[in-house]
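All the exercises in this workshop are built on plain-text protein records. Sequence and backbone structure share a record, each on its own labelled line. The structure tokens are whole numbers drawn from a learned vocabulary of backbone shapes. The record below serves as our worked example for the rest of this section.
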Amino acid sequence: MWLIPAIYLHHGQCICLFRGDFSKETVLSTNPLAFIKHWCSEGAKRLHIVDLDGTTKNKSYNKNLLKQIISEIDVPIQFGGGVHSMEQIDELLGLGVDFVVMGSTAVHKPDVISAACQKYSGKIIVAVDVKDGVAAIDGWEMKTNISAIDLIKHVRNLGVQTVLYTDIVRDGTLLGLNIKEATVLAQHTGMQLIVAGGLSSLDELKVLQEHEKDGICGALIESDSPIYRVLN
């Protein structure tokens, strides 16, 4: 099972947010490359990198930084943030990103997801962000009337193999993952799930590992988490 540090880029810095709230932003590093190299030295075998500028402004301000990261580290990267088109997917995979993470596009432009899965099988991860069992999109600002399970089944039918499931209420809190809901979603959809939102302890990770047979294939850990050294 993957244990994946989550790196959030905003105006060229690494930050963390409490429940996705930009008014509760904490700057973790003004040197993202050094910050990422640190986590690689701690044993990270995969990275989750999000361009928050892309999610809020639909424009990436961190492309050159991403190129530098790819050129200087040798760890698989799953990257997302404002990715809405096949052209962006082509560019990111061409740069050397290993997996492209897309969220709202699954609702707004499902044809893009379908085409991307046909062209890049296994390379597309869809982020399903959930609050009270219902999906939220557009940087979590819009709550839909689509249940998490229905959205996961929908993207499965589009050709997606892996979903990044986040319990919004727990994200950035270190209060614990929603393992129960994640397991139910994996069991009822047959999808591989990476679970995010509040990983808090080594014991919790051990519980999560018990559900690998159900389809849980990884967990995100907040990159400011004090338990990272212990977990590795």
Notes: The mean pLDDT is 87. The radius of gyration is 16 Å. DSSP finds ten helices and twelve strands in the chain.
